[in-house]
Every structure is written in C-alpha cells, then in structure tokens.
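Quick one:
INPUT:
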C-alpha cells in the first residue's frame, strides 16, 4: 500500500538573504535605508537562543507591499545559527517578490561597502530556520503590538 505524503510550507511568500559583513548592525541598516530606500527601524533586541540579545530591525513598505526584517545572527562573538558559508545577518522579505527583484536586491546588498557576500537561502534545506523564523515572527508581532498599544 502506497502512502501519500502531504507537504505544507510553513512560511509562504518569504525570502531569506544571508549576509556576511564586518559592518555593525546600525551601519548595515543605514546602508539599506540609503541605498535600497528602506526605512528600517531598530526595535527591541530579540533573544534567539535564550542567552544573547540580537539586533532586530523592521520595515513595512505598506499594504500589499513587502515587509522586511534585518536580524543579527551574531552577538558578542556568539553565533545563534552556524551555517557554511558563515552569515552575520539575515534579511527576511515577506510577501510576493519576483525573482528578478530578489536578484537585484541581492546584487545591491553585495555592492555595499564591507559586505563580503550575500546570497539567497532555501528555507526547505535548512530545517533549523523554521523555529528561528517562528521566533522572529512572534518577536515582530510583540514589538508592533507594544508600539501601537495605548498607555
């Protein structure tokens, strides 16, 4: 008897770009804002592995457009995710993005001074990213709720 296997992608319309750089998080965010015309805002640091705070930036381009997270994966020389090749930051792009625009975005990131390399990551090939992305999504939701909460 043959069994059918149902495969459901937990994160639809999401793209990941791994970035390796010597830049500090605020400088990388500055370059994104200047060169890519983002409006990244630093929010409360995220605890990805329970012990270390990681820089967290957010930008929402508006309804029916993309939302972006820039998350540091290194804190005080501690890496929360060890990949080969090594990445210091993760840029998460939510909502639909055509392949051409994604390639253009990666190229623009690679052109930033002191960015060693940037490349797209396949979520399906890195099982640890499911948990990581879930933590990031929950943190983003909590930060947004705190900013719009009425005191």
């Amino acid at each position: 008897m043959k069994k059918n296997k149902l495969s459901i992608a937990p994160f639809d319309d999401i793209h990941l770009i791994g970035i390796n750089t010597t830049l500090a998080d605020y400088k990388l965010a500055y370059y994104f804002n200047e060169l890519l015309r983002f409006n990244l805002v630093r929010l409360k640091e995220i605890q990805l592995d329970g012990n270390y705070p990681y820089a967290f930036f957010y930008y929402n381009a508006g309804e029916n457009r993309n939302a972006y997270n820039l998350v540091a994966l290194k804190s005080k020389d501690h890496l929360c995710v060890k990949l080969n090749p090594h990445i210091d930051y993760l840029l998460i792009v939510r909502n639909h993005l055509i392949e051409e625009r994604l390639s253009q975005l990666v190229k623009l990131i690679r052109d930033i001074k002191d960015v060693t390399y940037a490349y797209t990551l396949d979520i399906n090939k890195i099982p640890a990213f499911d948990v990581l992305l879930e933590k990031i999504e929950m943190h983003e939701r909590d930060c947004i709720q705190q900013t719009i909460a009425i005191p």
